[in-house]
Design goal:
Length: about 130
């Protein structure tokens, strides 16, 4: 081994080139390349069927669904997972499950606590048990 520095330099160049190539071909951290879409694409002029409100138990479906909702959590949001909007019959209608009805009743009982307590966290604690 007359030139160990030359061999080491060549290895370092190959490693750096491999890392560079790997970085150029991988998806960036914020990329949604592998993520499945949350909502189907809507063409301009076409409305989508969805909830007309972002939070709570007062659910209605329509083609005027908000495009963006804030990330806050409000009492009753937990129950929304048991309801959906359906447009398969040609109109946009609300479809609820039995779990929605029981969840809604429970949350409404929890909301009655508001008048009995000064701690709003008690309402959310009650809702977590629904």
């Amino acid at each position: 081994m007359k030139h160990p520095g030359l061999l080491l330099s060549a290895c370092m160049v190959l490693i750096v080139a491999a890392l560079f190539a790997a970085g150029c071909t991988s998806a960036s951290p914020g990329s949604t390349k592998d993520a499945s879409p949350v909502t189907p694409a809507v063409t301009p002029g076409q409305s989508s069927c969805g909830f007309t409100t972002c939070h709570g138990l007062d659910l209605a479906c329509g083609t005027n669904a908000p495009e963006v909702c804030d990330m806050s959590y409000r009492v009753g949001d937990k129950c929304r997972q048991y309801a959906r909007c359906d447009s398969s019959g040609g109109s946009c209608t609300l479809v609820t499950s039995p779990q929605f009805d029981s969840c809604k009743s429970c949350v409404e009982r929890c909301e009655a606590i508001k008048s009995e307590t000064v701690d709003p966290a008690m309402v959310f604690e009650c809702e977590s048990k629904c």
